[in-house]
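User: I'm putting together notes for a lab meeting next week and I want to include a structural view of one of the chains we've been expressing. I don't have a solved structure, so I'd like a prediction I can at least talk through. The sequence is below, exactly as it appears in our construct file.
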Amino acid sequence: MKNPLSLLLGILLTTCFWTQRATASTSEPTTPSLDKVACMIDCRQKIRIHLKNNLPTPVVWSSNNETIATVSSNGTVTGHAQGDAIITATAPNGSSAQCLVSVGYKGQNPIVPPTWGLFIADGEPHVFNGRMYLFGSRDVPDGFLPNGERDFCSTDYHVLYSDDLIHWVDAGVSISLEDIPAEIRGDTRRLWAPDLFKSPTEKDKYYLTFCGNGKPMYIAESHSPLGPFTNVRLITLNGEPIPQIDPGVLVDDDGKVYLASPRFFVCQLDPSDYSKIIPGSYRSVTESMPTDNEPFEGPSLRKRNGIYYYIYIQNKGNIQRDGAVPTLMGYMTASQPLGPYIYQGVLISNYDYPGAGNIHGSIEAFKGKWYVSYHMPLSDHLLTRSACMDEIQFRKDGTIEPIVPTSSGVKGAFVAGEKIQSSNGVAFSGGRSDIRLKSSKTTTGNPYEVLYTDYPYTFYDTPGQWIGYRFLLFSKKMKTLSMSVSTQGEGGVLEIRRGAPDGALVSTLSLPDTDGAWQVIRSDVSVTEKGRDAFYIVLKQKPTDGNIRIDWLQFDL
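Assistant: Thanks for the context. Below is the predicted structure for the 557-residue chain, given as C-alpha cells.
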C-alpha cells in the first residue's frame, strides 16, 4: 500500500502533523509544534522557524543536510545550496517536529517544489496585510485514503502563503475532518473546496467556509488565516442545511458578506455569526450562463473597480452528450453583488492537458497586479492535482484577457541558469489523451525509512512526439543546454525548438545509453534573436531500445 503522501512531505505528515496536534499533558506541552511544515528560500537567504507552543525546556535544532541548509540555536535557517533539507526541533524527552526547507527553487508552475508532495487544488487566493494566502483542498497521490477509498481531496486542509508569489510556506493543517462535530458531520469523509474571509467588524477574526463530499456547507473561525479553525457549524437557510458544495465568499466595501454556491446563486450572510443566509437575499444567476458549455461547480466572488465577478467552472460541452469535463474557468460580471450578471467568456482552461479532469480557482490582486489561481493534474497519478498561478490582464471595460497556462508561472518567463522541471510542460503533441508523465520512486538517504520520492518526469517513445513549455526569455548569450536524462540503448536524439514544434532549431542532443541511470547531457545552444517565447522538446530519433526519460533542463550562458 502506498504512503498517503508520496514525496518528502510524507514524513512530515506522519511524524509531524499528528504529533503537533497531540497534547501530552493538559497543563504543559512536551512535544514541539512548528509554525511551518515546509518552506522555500534562496541560497544565502535566511528564514526563521518558530515554535507555536511554549515548552518547559529548550529544543535542539538540527539539519539532516548542512550542505543544503544549516539551522541556528534559535531556529534560523540559512540556505547554502540547491536542494532539500529537513530541519528538526527535538525536545529533551526525544519528541520532535520537522520542517522541510527547499533551497534554490526559483518558482514555476506548479508553485511548490515536487519534492514536497503537497498537492493543493481548488485554490482560493486572498491577500491579508500584504501577504498572499492560498486556501484549497489537499489531494494525495492516486486519491489514496486510509480507509481504502479513492477520490479527490483528503481529510484536512493546508494553508500556503507567500510574500512574493515565488517563495511559498506550507503552514500545515488548519482544520481536519475530525474537527467537525459528529452530529453535523453526516456522510462527510473528505473535505472539498474551501474559501475564507476576514471579518469586516472584528480585528483578527477569520471565517473559513468549506464543504465535504457529504455536501453540507460549514463555517468555522480563527484569529489567524492559518487556523486552527474552531466552532464549526452548518450554514443554513431558514434553519435547514444547504445541500451544496464549494462555498465562495466576498466581503463588499460596505461590510456585507455574500456567498455563492454551485446551485448557482448569490446570497447575503447574516452578520450575527455568518452561519445563516438572510431570507430574501437568495438570487439565482443561471439565466446568463451559456448551456453549450454547461455550468458545473466552483463559484467564486471578487470585486474590482466597482465590477463584481462571478467566476465558476464550466464543462467543455455537455456531459451527457459530449462526455465533457469541467475544465473551463468562466466568469460573469455585474454592477451589483446579487446581479443581474452578464456572461463574459472563459478566463483559463486546462482541457488540453493530459489527464485533466477539472479546473477550479479564482483571481486576486497582489502588489498592483492580478493573478489567477488554478490547478493542473499530475497525469499518471489520477485524482491528484497541483496548485498553479499566472498573471492576468484586464481590458479597459473590466473584462479579462483570456490566458493560457504557463510553465514559468507568475514571473512570466524562465531565464538562463534556472532549472526547469520537464514535468511542467503545458502543451502536448497528443493533446489531452497523451499521458506523458510518469514517476520514479527512489530513497532519499534519510534515516526515516518511510521517506522516498515519487518524482514526476516526462518520457518519449515515438519519433515526432513533443512537449511545449511557456515561456523562456531567450538570450543571444545562451551557449549551453544541460538536461538530466535516462535512456536504454543508443541513438536517441532530442531537438529543442523555439515558438512551435517545427520552429527554429535551438539545440540538438545526441543521447548515449545511460543504462537506465540519470545522467546530465550537455549540448550547444544557438539563439539568433532575443525575447520571450515558448520552446518545445521534440523526439527526433528513438533509442535502439526503450524510451527517453527527462527530469529537468537548464539553459546556461
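A couple of points you could mention at the meeting. The first strand starts at residue 38 and ends at 41. The helical segments are 9-21, 182-185, 319-322.

User: Perfect, that's what I needed.
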